[in-house]
Automatic annotation (TrEMBL):
Name recorded for this polypeptide: Nascent polypeptide-associated complex subunit alpha-like UBA domain-containing protein
InterPro entries referenced in this protein's UniProt entry, alphabetically: HYPK_UBA, NAC-like_UBA
Organismal lineage: Eukaryota, Fungi, Dikarya, Basidiomycota, Agaricomycotina
Superkingdom of origin organism: Eukaryota
UniProt domain Nascent polypeptide-associated complex subunit alpha-like UBA: residue ranges: 54-90
Length: 101
């Protein structure tokens, strides 16, 4: 994006030499930035196994155990939607859904 000053000539390309011997070329720097070579994009963060609990199951746990909705949703997510296992996990402190009976 070059500006044209009042005299009609385009703005000269900026080249700066630094004390350490490196130089900066405006056109090449802009091309590197816009192409993504200079700052590569961050790797995409893998989404957790998103699980959406059934509203009826969450409502049942919230109503019967009188716990926050977020805690009920978390319990259902940990058991992959198994209501029975989620209830056992919530009412039995030592019980976890993966434990053998």
């Amino acid at each position: 994006m070059q500006r044209t000053p009042l005299n009609g000539r385009p703005e000269p390309e900026v080249i700066v030499n630094f004390v350490d011997g490196l130089s900066y070329n405006k056109g090449k720097m802009e091309a590197a930035i816009f192409s993504g070579e200079l700052f590569p994009p961050k790797p995409a963060v893998k989404a957790k196994d998103s699980f959406v609990a059934k509203r009826e199951d969450v409502d049942l746990i919230v109503r019967e155990l009188e716990i926050p909705r977020a805690q009920a949703e978390r319990a259902l997510a940990e058991t992959k939607g198994d209501l029975e296992k989620a209830l056992l996990d919530l009412v039995s402190p030592g019980h976890k859904s993966g434990d053998a009976r």
